[in-house]
Structures are given as structure tokens and as C-alpha cells.
Amino acid sequence: MKKLILPLMVTALLAGCNDTTAVNNKDFSPEQKAQIEKIASQYIIEHPEVLVKASETLQKQQMEKQVQSAKQTVVTYADQLIKDAKTPYVGPKDAKVNVIEFFDYQCMFCSKISPIVKQLETENPDVKFIFKETPIFASRWEASKYAADMGNWIFAHKGSDLYSKYHNAVFASGKDEGKLTKQDINDVATKLGIDISKFDANNSFEGNFQLFSQLGFQGTPALIVMPTDNVTTDNVHIINGYDPKGLKDAIAEVKSNAK
After folding, report:
1. What pLDDT shows up at residue 22?
2. Burial classification of residue 61, based on how many CB atoms lie within 10 Å of its CB (0-12 exposed, 13-18 middle, 19 or more buried)
3. Residue 9: enclosing H or E segment and its boundaries?
4. pLDDT value at residue 103
5. Cis check: omega of the bond before 92, within 30 degrees of 0
6. Closest-CA residue to 216 (of 72, 113, 87)
7. Looking at per-residue confidence, does 32 or 125 come out higher?
8. DSSP state of 25
9. CA 28 to CA 78: how far, in whole Å?
């Protein structure tokens, strides 16, 4: 019986204020509290895995809470996410399903997932892929900001097709984590027939930064898969970081429910 009681006691103590079912401290005398703490401390010393499990459980709960909060924010800003005319996109303008990616050309994992996103575009021609230029490394590497502005400028003046070629070509260079230069970016644009002398870098991505922050994202790539109509927290999927399977599965699920 003692082996069963001790873990339950430790669990109650670790739960603290977050567990309304935990034993109320007022139910014990000072002597009893001291004895409980002594027994619990000894149990933790003998079973340190309890703390590891408690920490993992807490982290999981915090992540789930953050994701749920982000989903609610997605619902609130649905139109801004999928209907902003200034944001580059590939695919049907009136698609029923959308994939929104917040990314930075200098981000290693954005570079890694780029060919996968490109493949998913080919496999899902009925899905709209929206690209939120979010140069989170701009303060560290000037090319991060320059590439984002160039991308938005190309979309605004040349449209989706040329933007897509630019976007994929920059990532295909394999230069990230500070290796990408302004000259690399100019070379990509020039090869696509763009007159870069007309390019105007004007911090066109600032609205994306604000939305990125409101969603609680802390790194790139950050992706959202969502329907165009009747958006709820139940049909929004958020993929943080490099997760090809999670992204593919989310697209399939939203598509199946959006028919």
C-alpha cells in the first residue's frame, strides 16, 4: 500500500495550484505537513524519474495551451491570413484550403522544408499556398530583410508565377544561416528578367511580423493549414518547425473536410 500512496502523494504535491483536486493543505497540521514533505522528498530522491515525468507533462500542457491560443488567434485573423492582397501566393485565388507559411530565407529549416512545400504545391493544385515573408534574422543578416522585400516587390509587380520562381530559386541556392548575400538575391532576380534598378526596399513585411507575434510564434518555419470558410479551432492546424508529415497530413485532413 505504501508504494501506491507515496506516488499519489508526490503527484498531489507537484500538482500545486494547477490541480483543484489536490489535497487542501488546511486539512493537515504543521507536524503532518512536515512528515508528508519528508516522505515526498525521500521518494523523489529515490525516484528522480518522477520529476522528469512531471516536467515533461508540464511542458506538454504548456505547448497544448499555446497551440490552442494560436488557433483562436488564427480564427480571429482569418481574413488577414488568407485574403491579404499584398501577400504572395501560389495556387487558386478562391481555393477552399490554404497553407500559410511564415518564413525567412536565411532560416536553415525553412530552406530544408522548401522543396517539400514545392512538392505539395504540385500534388495539391487546388490548394492556395500563401507566403508570409518574415525575416526574423534581419537584425543579424541584412540579406534576410533584403530578400523578403525583394520577394514582396516581385509579387506586387510581376505576380505569382515569377514570385514562385524567385522564392524557389533563392532557397535552391542552398545559402542560409548568413551565407546568402544581397548579390545572390540580385543575381536570382536578374536571371528571371527583373530590372532590379526599379526595386524599392520598403519594409513591406512589417505587418507579417505583427501577425507572427500575435500568433505567439517564436521561430520559422511556422505553418498554418486552414479552410477558407467556417474557420474554427477544430479545423485549423498549426505546424511549428520542420514537420513534413505533419504538414502533409494536415493538408489531407482539411481538404477532406472542406469538400
Report:
1. 44
2. exposed
3. helix 2-15
4. 98
5. no
6. 72
7. 125
8. G
9. 51
- Residue 92: CB atoms within 10 A of its CB come to 12
Pair 150, 201: CB distance under 8 Å: yes
From the CB of residue 249, how many other CB atoms can be counted at a distance below 10 Å? 14
Report the DSSP pairing between strands 89-90 and 237-240: unpaired
pLDDT at 45 over 80: no
| Residue 233 contacts residue 71 (beta carbons within 8 Å) | yes
For residue range 131-152, what is the model confidence (pLDDT) as tens digits?
Answer: 999 999 999 999 999 999 999 9
* pLDDT for position 157: 95
Q: Which amino acid is at 197?
A: S
How far apart CA 84 and CA 156 sit, in angstroms, is: 12
* Residues in Cβ contact with 115 at an 8 Å cutoff, skipping those fewer than 6 apart: 171
Instruction: Give the chain's length.
Output: 259
CA–CA distance, 3 with 21 (Å, rounded to integer): 21
Q: 99 forms bridges with which residues in the sheet?
A: 129, 225
* CB contact set of 39 (below 8 Å; sequence gap of 6+): 6, 9
State residue 55's pLDDT score: 63
Strands (E), the chain: 89-90, 97-103, 127-133, 222-227, 237-240
**Which ranges constitute the DSSP H helices of 77-125?**
78-82, 108-123
On the question of pLDDT at 19 being above 80, the answer is no
Over range 98-104, report the average pLDDT.
98
Q: Please tell me which residue, 223 or 45, carries the higher pLDDT value.
A: 223
Q: How far is CA 220 from the centre of its chain?
A: 6
Strand order in the sheet with 89-90: 89-90, 127-133, 97-103, 222-227, 237-240
